Each structure stands twice: as C-alpha cells, then as structure tokens.
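Field log, afternoon session.

UNIT: design team B
ACTIVITY: writing a sequence onto a fixed backbone
BACKBONE:
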C-alpha cells in the first residue's frame, strides 16, 4: 500500500468516525469540535485528490470561519444560561437509516461509474486554480467585495448583539 493510499484511508476513516460520533454526542460544543475534525479530514482528502483550491477553501471558509462563529455562539449562550448546551437526539435511528441508504446509493453510483484519467490533468490543475484566482480578481471582483462586506456587517452585528446580551445579563443578575 502506498503512502497516498494510506493517507486517503486514514482521512476517510477519521472523517467517518467523527461523523458517526457526532450522531451520538450530546454536548453541542463537542459536536462542533467533531464537525471541525470531519471538515479538516475532508480538506485532507481534497489535497490528496490534487484539489488544492477546494482544500484551502474548506479550511478557510468552513473550519476557519463558520465553525468559529458557531463555537463563539455556543460559548456565549452557555455563559448567559450558566450551563452547557445539551441536545437530545430524538430521531437517531431514522437518521442512521437515511444516512445508510444515502451511503448505499453513493457506493452503487461510484461502483458503476467508469473513471478515466485525463491526459492533461497536471496542466489543467495549474490552469484551473490560476483561472479561479484571475476570475475572482477581475470579472467577479464586485460580488467578491460585496460578500466580504456582508460578512463584515454580520461580524459587527454579532459583536453588537453579544455586547447587548452581556449588558442585559449583567443587569438581570446584578
């Protein structure tokens, strides 16, 4: 077994185990940590598949951005209520059944697909990342800047709401 195959199986196993553990965990904070582990494992799989842009995007956008906001919200909510957030999984078995059915469909479709390697895969990879970067900084600059501005507004709004909630909780307890 080559090193690349071992790494692929390792990242796949870590992603699968963290996703399965997410079904059984009750505390929301630990669930967010498991989601981060799963997303980082998927980024590793993307990197092994020579999809560097997707791997970096996976880390920056999901693991680095969205989940930090989720953890911030969890920690802020637990400080207001004074106890950790606990979730009761009421649809655990039906979710596992639906996930298993989806997994079976994916395995069936992957086994029936004829994967043919591209002749110019290395050249296409270099050009695709370069085209994405050039497109973002030229043709799609306005939507890119608007998305950044909306994220900044959301961050400022979250800070204002957090400061307001902190002030109100101090008024109630003091």
């Amino acid at each position: 077994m080559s090193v690349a195959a071992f790494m692929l199986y390792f990242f796949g196993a870590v992603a699968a185990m963290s996703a399965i553990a997410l079904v059984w965990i009750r505390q929301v904070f630990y669930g967010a940590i498991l989601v981060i582990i799963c997303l980082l494992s998927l980024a590793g799989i993307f990197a092994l598949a020579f999809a560097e842009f997707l791997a970096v995007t996976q880390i920056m956008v999901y693991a680095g951005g969205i989940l930090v906001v989720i953890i911030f919200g969890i920690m802020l909510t637990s400080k207001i209520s004074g106890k950790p957030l606990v979730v009761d999984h009421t649809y655990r078995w039906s979710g596992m059944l639906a996930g298993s059915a989806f997994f079976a469909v994916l395995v069936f479709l992957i086994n029936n697909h004829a994967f043919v390697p591209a002749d110019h895969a290395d050249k296409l990879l270099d050009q695709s990342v370069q085209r994405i970067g050039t497109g973002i900084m030229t043709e799609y600059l306005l939507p890119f800047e608007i998305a950044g501005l909306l994220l900044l507004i959301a961050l400022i709004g979250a800070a204002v709401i957090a400061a307001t909630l902190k002030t109100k909780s101090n008024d109630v307890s003091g």
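LOG NOTE: The chain has six helices and no strands.
NEXT ACTIVITY: expression trials, pending approval
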